[in-house]
Amino acid sequence: MEDYPQNSHSEDSLKKISGLYQDWFLDYASYVILDRAIPSIYDGLKPVQRRIMHSMRELEDGRYNKVANIVGNTMKYHPHGDASITDAMVQIGQKELLIDCQGNWGNIFTGDSAAAARYIEARLTPFALEVVFNPKTTQWTKSYDGRNNEPIDLPVKFPLLLAQGVEGIGVGLSTKILPHNFNELIQASIAYLKNKNFQLFPDFITEGLIDVSEYNDGQRGGKVRVRAKIAQRDKHTLVISELPFSKCTGDLIDSIIKANEKGKIKIKKIEDNTSDKVEILIHLHPDMSPDKTIDALYAFTDCQVTISPNACVIVGDKPVFLSVSEILKRNTDHTVQLIKTELEIELKELQESWHFASLERIFIENKVYREIEEQETWEDVISAIDQGLKPFTKHLLRAVTEDDIVKLTEIRIKRISKFDLNKAKENIEALEGKMEMVNHHLANLISYVIEYFQNIQKKYGKDKTRRTEIRIFDTIDAAKVAVANEKFYANFAEGFIGTSLKKDEYLFDCSDIDDIIIFRKDGTMQVTKVESKTFVGKNILHVGIWKKNDKRTIYNMIYREGKEGPYYMKRFSVTAVIRNNEYALASAKKGSEVLYFSANPNGEAEIVNVLLKPSARIRKNKIEIDFSELAIKGRDSKGNLVTKYPVKKIDLKEEGISTLAPRKIWFDDAVRRLNADGRGTYLGSFKGDDKILLVSSKGEAKLVNFDLSNRFDDEYLILEKWKSDRALACIYYDADKERYFLKRFVLENTNSPQVFYSSEHPKSFIEWVSTDANASAEIIFSKVKGVEKDPEWININEFITIKGIKAIGNQLSKDKIKNINIHVPEVEEIEEEEEETSEKEMEDDGEGTIGSLF
Q1: How far apart are the first and last CA of the chain?
Q2: Residue 36's pLDDT is what?
Q3: Strand pairing category for 728-734 and 765-770
Q4: How far is it, in rounded angstroms, from Cα 203 to Cα 210?
């Protein structure tokens, strides 16, 4: 056997695989980032999108082309399959800006896909033809196979990247730029050119609501929250009419069904009636609150989603992370440069036209063409014409070249014989006028670009109003809106609680994200999550649902300090704890015991009798304690001394009433919600039965409670605290009778809507409605045959008495009324203020000072 060498390859031919991998991976990553995933900042297009647009411009003849034909033509430039080109083209078409679509291009609301490319057609929109293309200012490069030229960037004179938005995933980085409003982008570009500040926020074709408070100018780290628009159609039906961006009706319905199956929300059924407009009907069970269900939909379904923008673009040949404002500034600067280049090209073309028109005039007017009659060679002809022109060419913009002379020799005899000097002068003067105009535009370039943007907006921005409503969202506490989908039980003897103890004592319904608070006889307390079975210790006094920062649930307690110590009483709330930690509410002394305990959801304070054990030292063995006389303090406070003597038992004498002050309520117009935090317009102090009056422009009045979870998404003419002794006054115009009427009426204390005005005539309307007392109206009359009647003043309360809600009212005047001015005197209302328990008082850990009873 022959001996083979250990290494049959020369060392020079070896190469480490790791080195190859590194080089190949970098090449691949660069290709994906630059040539596939990330758009150029200049035209806002990815390579496939740019090639589609260029291909459509090649085929453009004003008529629709089959998409299959466009895709086939695009494959000359794009080295990938037809499916990827078709998908990219459909996405551009659905944005309704660059492509005029015909046929079934899919449905952005339902997520239905477009028909096959052979069945749908497309052509460029007038906007695209005007703004996107100009071969004179386009830089070209060879296509992937070297057979054709394709644009490096299209000369887009508009912030197209921000208008369409883009999303792409490359190797090691991604981009997500949200779409913005067409008109707002133009206004921002104009503001930038005028050195003014501007702000840009996303706007989506799916409409919906958006909270941009954390948008961070579209940079990494920012976010927006988007919501579906949900309204209450009736007591048992909700309707979704607008979608959150990035979600279709199918996604939304799936998420709602899943939330219902998990018990997060509770709905009866759901219907999808979406076609060209979104309409998803959600039918509720009779016992479900529509307002609470709306909040739950936002909390547990895709009706609210958070989107994190990430503005990554290609600048030159590198990916760069920018803000939306910086992208707009660079796009606007690029537009200025493109328009300047177009003007310079136009000026050069005009100068060339003027130059040759002037040469032609000199050539014919001065009969220079006769100089060539005797010439025998072409060189002599050129020289003779050059010599003949020289005396007349000093005013020209540039020197006469041989190419100019050759063009003169190509003038036909017929044209020379019919030469009209006056027309030639007019043509030259017209060209001079155009050159002067172009020079003026170049000298005032910024003003010219501003005018360009204004013309673009005027021509194409009429139907491009903002679709997505900007609104600050309220923070929804998921625990407060979750449906009570679990039944909770307790085994008091063994010390277990949970949802699986179905053979033991039923306590209440709760949601699976609630927290449970437990009080024990030894004076300890803890908070735990809802579980199937949890051991919390024996001798349980009370188990309930606990809400963080709940200051209205008050606990009343009497306890003994140690085995034989004195007895104390205390009132406290539990606003914040660490879950599963044990807290001593009575005393750390061993043997402490709670003798009386009550949990009061609205701060009720009962009266109890404390019976003492008989003793010769006690004059009376019965003590009456009224908890309303006891201050509400922190849970760690010791409390007030009840007695030093042994207690036999404690009996309830009288149920208590709430000792908490009426709740001060404000209305925050930004989020359209009530709050108790002092944000917005102060409505007043509310007790248990107080209500809020809502009056709509449709002539409907409603009374609703002051629950902070209520929603007020609609616009109301009146939103205030209802006072039953105040009448409403309404001035309305009846278009059928062509007269104004005034009526006064009171509302019934009912939850049902109360209609006080209705009209089917489209020109009828409510002029004014109010609960203000002592209001007056100045009536301005129209001129009759040139004669103007003096204004009249009427006192609203004196003009008409209070009548039924359905009464027509009294006619203000038989004369034709031009205008009505309402005057309401400023009256300072004094509202009774009840002393509220301060947070400082509630958190006081010291002993009370009302004294001991013995």
Answers
A1: 117
A2: 67
A3: antiparallel
A4: 8
Three-state DSSP state, 335: helix
- CA angle (175, 180, 184) in 5-degree steps: 145
Report residue 498 as tokens.
Answer: 């949970």
Question: Which one is catalytic: 21, 28, 31, 119?
Answer: 119
Q: What is the pLDDT of residue 587?
A: 81
Q: 164: which 2 tokens? A: 């369409």
Summarised one tens digit per residue, pLDDT across range 701-744 is 999 988 877 888 788 999 999 998 899 999 999 999 999 999 99
Residue with tokens 């043997």: 591
Taking the C-alpha atoms of residue 655 and residue 652, their distance in angstroms, rounded to an integer, is 7
**DSSP annotation of 9:** S
**Who contacts 638 (Cβ-Cβ below 8 Å, separation ≥6)?**
568, 570, 587, 845, 846, 847
Q: Position 19: which residue type?
A: G
Is the Cβ–Cβ distance between 180 and 201 less than 8 Å?
yes
> 227-256 burial by CB neighbour count: b if 16+ within 10 A, else e?
bbbbebeeeeebbbbbbbbebbbebbbebb
Nearest CA among 642, 556, 655 for reference residue 606: 655
Instruction: Report which of 206, 125, 159 is spatially closest to residue 45, judged by C-alpha positions.
Output: 159
Q: Domain 156-322+462-482 has what CATH class?
A: alpha beta
Across 723-835, the runs of DSSP E, i.e. the strands, are 728-734, 739-745, 754-755, 765-770, 776-781, 792-795, 810-811, 817-823
* Full DSSP string of 237-283: EEEEEE--TT--HHHHHHHHHHHHHTTSS--SEEEE--SSS--EEEE
The span from the CA of 583 to the CA of 524, in Å, is 5
Distance CA 558, CA 650 (A): 9
3-state secondary structure 679-706: CCEEEEEECCCCCEEEECCCCEEEEECC
Amino acid letter, residue 46: K
The answer for residues whose C-beta is within 8 angstroms of residue 54's C-beta and 6 or more apart is: 77, 150, 151, 154
CA-atom Rg of the chain in angstroms: 41
Which residue, among 520, 523, 491, has the nearest Cα to 507 in the 3D structure? Answer: 491
What is the enclosing helix (H) or strand (E) of 362?
helix 324-365
496-503: list long-range contacts, CB under 8 Å, 24+ apart.
496/533, 496/534, 496/535, 496/536, 497/533, 497/534, 497/536, 497/540, 497/543, 498/530, 498/531, 498/532, 498/533, 498/534, 499/530, 499/531, 499/532, 499/533, 500/532, 500/533, 501/533
Contacts (Cβ under 8 Å, ≥6 apart) of 430: none
């300090």: which residue's tokens?
561
The residue behind tokens 């609703």 is: 704
95, 178 Cβ separation under 8 angstroms:
no
Q: List the strands of the sheet with 718-721, edge to edge.
A: 718-721, 692-695, 700-704, 754-755
Token pair of 6 as six digits: 């250990």
Tell if the pTM clears 0.85, that is, is over it. Answer: no
Distances (CA, A) of 550 to 480, 569, 573, 617, 684: 12, 21, 8, 43, 21
The DSSP output letter for 847 is P
State the Cα–Cα distance between residues 86 and 103, nearest whole angstrom: 14
What type of residue is 40?
S
Residue 74 — φ and ψ, nearest 5°?
Answer: -65, -25
Per domain, the residue ranges of the chain are 156-322+462-482, 338-443, 547-658, 663-823
Q: Is 175 left (phi over 0), alpha (psi -120 to 50) or beta?
A: beta
What does pLDDT average to over the chain? 87
Q: What share of the chain is helix, strand, coil (3-state, %, to 5)?
A: 30, 30, 45
Please identify every stretch of the chain with a pLDDT value under 50, giving residue numbers as ranges. 1-10, 832-854
* CA–CA gap between residue 770 and residue 718 (Å, rounded): 7
What Å distances lie between residue 224 and 201, 205, 244, 295, 307, CA to CA? 10, 16, 11, 18, 5
Q: Is 119 a catalytic residue?
A: yes
pLDDT at 26: 62
